[in-house]
Structure formats: C-alpha cells, structure tokens
What we know:
The protein is an alpha/beta fold and 247 residues long. It has 12 helices and 4 strands. Helix 1 crosses helix 2 (31-44) and helix 2 packs across helix 8 (161-171). The chain is globular and about 45 Å long. The protein starts with a helix and ends in a 15-residue tail after the last helix. The mean pLDDT is 92.
Amino acid sequence: MKLVDDIANWIRIQVEQSGAEGVVLGLSGGVDSSVVAALSKKAVGERVLGLIMPCGSSPIDEENALLVASQLGIKTQRINLEAVCRGLLEVLPPGTGVPPGNKLALANLKPRLRMITLYYYANNLNYLVSGTGNKSEIMVGYFTKYGDGGVDILPVGGIVKSQVRDLAKELGIPKEIIDKPPSAGLWQGQTDEEELCITYAELDKTILALESKMTEDIDAHILSKVENLIKVSAHKRALPKIFEEKK
C-alpha cells in the first residue's frame, strides 16, 4: 500500500531533519499505537522504543501491546505509573479547585503522566516522541491537551480512523486488536464511541464530507454535533495565544 510507504518515509525524514536518533511512543494495545509502531519500525528499524505505561489500565491492553511489540520485533520498557498517580492525587486536595467527583479532571492526569515519561526517555535517547492520535480524534479534540496531544510528530494525524484500520490490516496487526472497541483507557469500561456519543464510522464520514464541502447526505443532527466539536476544540489544535503590545 502506497500510504504505508509514504508515512514511513515521512517519519524517517522527520527523524533525520530533527537530528534525532529514533522514535519513542506509548504502546497502549490499541490499533492506533500498533499502526504507528509498525510504521516507525519500517521507517527507522531497530531505533524504536515502545513504552508500556499502566495506570489503572486493563491487563488485556498490556497483553495486546506486548503481542504487537513481539510481532514487530521492537524494544519495550514497562513503567508502572499507578503509584505516581496515587501520590499526585494525595497532594491535590479539593481546595485546589478539583472537585473529588470530577472524573475527567482526574482521568486526564494519566495521559499527562505518560507524556512526561515519554519525554524523559526521548531526551535521554535523543528520540522523537511519536503521537498515535488520528485525524478523527484530533479534529473533534478527543485527546488530552499536554497529554497524548503533547508529541513531536503525528504519523496518522492526517488520516481518519477507518483508514488507520485499513493500514492495520495491511501491516498485519492482529485481528483482536483491530476489532477491539477503541478506548483511551481513562477509566474502567470507558470507550471512545460512548464518550463521543457518535460512532467512528459516522465521525469519519462527516469529517470527510466537511472537507469536501459535500454534506448533503449527512444527518443534520450529526453534522451539527461534529461542527460544534470542531469549533469548541479549536484551542487544543493551536499554539497558546500570545499577547502582543501595541506599538
């Protein structure tokens, strides 16, 4: 598949142009990270490190991550972040403005701890941090700012989820990983589609229709929902705004 070669070549060029030695990424056991790992291996060979960072995660996710790493022949490191996360929560009392029941605020600590860990390894190895987010998620802001959104490159950030699944089949990613319900693993039983209240099939179709300006066949409710998600998440795709003094 031409897209496989194009993305792998792009990764290699990014690594070379930055003066880096390789690529580090988080291996979650999901289809996106599996595809990015496979593309990175094609791009830079042995200079790929996959970090497995459990933090209240499902044991199945770790099993899937190890399965992919073994199949691809890439090095892994396991860093258990559960104790670190618990310790952080102990020094974040309600007085800091985080209500005890705010599930999302607490859950977002996990991807931010993973980002810190990825950059620790990247700095030590002179590697680039590769993100695993796809276009469907990025466009509607379905990522944690300065968490899984804090990366150097996004190899599959320009293609929608259905295209990532196609790449997974082409790359020989195990079927159980491709067919597994997508989840950010923010809490037990959490799935992407339930949280987004829209299927990836609907989301992909709507995003592509908006890009082509051919939205006639899109359900009005879904179209409005996706347009609003894109609008309210714009700040997550932009650099911080900077005050400029008037001259």
